[in-house]
Design a protein that fits this description.
Elements: H1 3-10, E1 15-19, H2 27-31, E2 35-41, H3 49-58, E3 67-72, H4 78-97, H5 110-130
Antiparallel strand pairs: 1-2, 2-3
Helix pairs in contact: 3-4
């Protein structure tokens, strides 16, 4: 499943709670509810269990009932704050579905092995040439 198909399932299960936002924005923020808080109950979701487990591993759920919450009050309009909260949920789902590429072990090339061994030999010769040049008067 892709992020778009998962979001199509989740978007119908999401509920919003609105509040008066704080911060700059003028009289519109002081008299209207422009902040939005998104709630999604993962236990009652129609999403397959394997994807729910992946989302739980990201560890942004609350203790009671695995309720995912996102709060947005940065914008001046309610619609923009709702879109912002939905995009935060979408980022959470993208993080949960991300699978890093597995590293393939490779052999060093013949030339790199040869260069490494010649460098070691040059280093050894340089060090050994410094030995045995001590003049003793005993």
């Amino acid at each position: 499943m892709t992020v778009e198909t998962i979001m199509a399932i989740i978007i119908h299960e999401v509920t919003f709670q609105y509040f008066t936002a704080s911060g700059p924005g003028g009289q519109n923020l002081q008299k209207n509810k422009t902040g939005a808080q998104l709630f999604w109950n993962m236990d009652e979701s129609a999403l397959p269990l394997e994807y729910q487990e992946k989302i739980r591993r990201v560890n942004r759920t609350t203790k009671e009932g695995f309720l995912v919450q996102f709060k947005s009050q940065t914008e001046r309009s309610l619609d923009m704050n709702k879109k912002n909260a939905i995009s935060k949920l979408e980022n959470l789902i993208e993080q949960s579905l991300y699978v890093p590429k597995t590293r393939k072990a490779t052999k060093p090339t013949r030339g790199s092995v040869r260069r490494r061994l010649t460098d070691k030999k040059v280093h050894k010769d340089r060090k050994s040439s410094r030995r045995g040049n001590k003049v003793s008067e005993w």
